[in-house]
């Protein structure tokens, strides 16, 4: 069965786009089943959903903890003021085959412009009414399927240097950190806004900044599947080299400014990674 609908001829894995889907009807995507998944799954994070747009996701569990158990937070999700994040559900024996089915469907579209779907993962977000997912970036490309409730979603272009500066981009890729990824109010004028309901979906390209606010009437459920391609890994590796050059006191040319220079940097990355791997250092699998 095809779960996702879009104009395939227009899809480009480097560009944001909207689509529709039918995943909200799938038995595994119902709240009671997702609650069972959360309570048995090894990697679940949860915290207060009532946080500002400027909150760092790296510190939110510590700085905005929930005051109840995960079981109680889910039982009372309409009133508990909680954000629940179920991670890496591709590892669950029940959900794993379903995640593969969705990613295999997506892969056919992605391959129109990009090569080799890798780092295949999936996530579930359950959020109390009025909750906020603050401004941040992810280390993957994402298909975001909305299943329940309503959300307002803001998405930014990761190549817009008035939002994502070159130095912030290099830091983000170089150390996999968000401490320099900070929301500014003037960013809003540069965002694409989506108001999404069950059956709506958004594709956002590799590392695109985004922010989400939940509707105030009903708790929400969203499901995302993520991946990286050869082209995504190249962006990461060039920026890692740029960050290394910047640490050495140089001012490297931005990724994408010169194909020739980018290819040189990819060669340097390969040499460093190969050399370091001989000493047991995988350079964070870059």
Quick tags:
alpha+beta; Jelly Rolls; globular; 2 domains; 286 residues; eight-stranded antiparallel β-sheet; 7 helices
Architecture overview:
This protein has helices spanning 31-40, 60-63, 70-75, 96-110, 166-175, 230-247, 259-277, and strands at 4-5, 17-21, 44-48, 82-86, 118-127, 132-136, 141-148, 151-155, 192-196, 200-204, 210-214, 220-228. The mean pLDDT is 94. The two termini are 35 Å apart. By secondary structure, it is of the alpha+beta class. It folds into two domains: 4-229, Cupin (Jelly Rolls), CATH 2.60.120.650; 233-285, no CATH class. It is built from seven helices and twelve strands. The protein has an eight-stranded antiparallel β-sheet. A four-stranded antiparallel β-sheet has the order 6-11-8-9, with no helix packed on it. Helix 5 (166-175) packs across helix 6 and helix 6 packs across helix 7.
Overall body shape: globular
- Assigned CATH superfamily of the largest domain: Cupin
- As for the number of domains, it is 2
Radius of gyration: 19 Å
Stated plainly, the CATH topology of the largest domain is called: Jelly Rolls
Supply the number of helical segments: 7
- Tell me, rounded to a whole number, the average pLDDT: 94
Distance between the amino and carboxyl termini: 35 Å
Strand order of the largest sheet: 1-2-10-7-12-5-4-3
Which bin fits the share of residues in helices? 25-40%
- Helix/sheet category: alpha+beta
Q: How many β-strands, per DSSP? A: 12
Judging by the overall fold, what is the CATH architecture of the largest domain? Sandwich
Strand content: 15-25%
CATH class of the largest domain: Mainly Beta
Largest sheet properties: 8 strands, antiparallel
Order of helices and strands: EEHEHHEHEEEEHEEEEHH
